[in-house]
Amino acid sequence: MMRALGYPRLISMENFHTPNFMLVSEVLFWLVKRYEPQTDIPPDVETEQDRVFFIKAVAQFMATKAHIKLNTKKLYQADGYAVKELLKITSVLYDAMNTKGVEHVDLSEEDSSKFKFDLGSKIADLKAARQLASEITSKGASMYDLLGKEVELREARAESIARPLEINEAEKVMKIAINCVLEEVQKTKDMLNNVALDEANLEAKIEKRKLELERSQKRLQTLQSVRPAFMDEYEKIEEQLQKQYSSYLEKFRNLTYLEQLLDDHRRTEQEMFEEAANMLRLMQNRLKEEEQLLLKGATNDDSDVEIREDEGSDSEMQDRQTRKQHTSTGTLLQGRAGVRIVGTMQGGDTEEDEDSGDSEIDLDEDEEEDDMEDNSIEISPRKFVLRARKPEPLEESDNDF
After folding, report:
1. Which of 53, 62, 161, 240 has its CB surrounded by the most CB atoms within 10 Å?
2. Which residues in 15-54 are b (16+ Cβ under 10 Å) and which e?
3. What is the biggest distance separating any 2 CA atoms in the chain, rounded to whole angstroms?
4. pLDDT digits (tens, 9 = 90+) for 314-356
5. Based on the number of CB atoms within 10 Å of its own CB, is 75 exposed (0-12), middle (13-18) or buried (19 or more)?
6. 307 half-sphere exposure, CB direction, 13 A CA radius
7. C-alpha distances out from residue 188 to 180, 181, 193, 196, Å
8. What count of other Cβ atoms lies within 10 Å of the Cβ of residue 62?
9. What is d(CA 72, CA 69) in angstroms, rounded to the nearest whole number?
């Protein structure tokens, strides 16, 4: 549309993706000049106030002259929404141009020889006519509104003219206004005086702080330059502490190593003790088994002696029993330590005495078995060999011992 209306440069929607107020103002000014060449809207848009005044002037001109209502807020945004507002003006001008062009084409077709209508030469007259028509319409509407209010305004005007002017009341109102203004002026002066006092106080505080800062900096410099009296002692103690710490580390490592060796030694001793206990337990079991075998052998010998007594004489039987008893007791004496033997020096005894002697020997043998169980650890391998051998019969002699 702008190209058809004769705008000198190309315009695209890409120009309005970001706010572009300069282009919007240029287009608005060109459209207003196109619509009314004699208008005097200032084109200055450098400051914010100038831009607001320019937008308001254009909106007011289009509302009064062309009856086109524009949204000033969207125009001031100068983006895609401003294009919609610009289309309101350009569409009116474009439709007017097309209407005149169609009429010209129809007339030329009907009677091209009668006259030729030059639209370009009559555009200025068309704009002037439209402007006059819009002015007439707006003036007539405003005049109609004012004439409708004339009845009320006439009465108020008459009352105002008829009422005399009271000088006292006017003077009183003026004095009140003057007093208010004077009070405001006094408040302003007080505020200025307070500002001056505050400024002086702040300057005094700033100077005081500066002096304190300078003193602190000087003190810091002196402290940095002076070496403390205890610094030498501190360095010596620090060196001693370092040495003590290194010796402590060495002793700690040695102590840890020795503790580990002690643990290993105790562990090996415990293992050796357990092995010895196992060996002694095995030896004890073997000794018990051999004792049982010896006791079984002794009982078998007793049964053989009884059979021989039945076949021979009583004297021979007693002698043999005594010899066998001495043989068994000697064998037990060789195999055991601390065996207690109970018997008599006489050769011939009754059967009751023999039974009692056998019972006492059996009791002693039971006691010996209990003692062997308690003192099994003290038995030597030599005694074990002696007990393992079968007892040999002693030679017959009159001396039993």
Report:
1. 62
2. ebeeeebeebbbbbbbbbebbbeeeebeeebeeeeebeeb
3. 198
4. 555 555 555 555 454 444 444 444 444 444 444 444 444 444 4
5. buried
6. 5
7. 12, 11, 9, 12
8. 23
9. 9
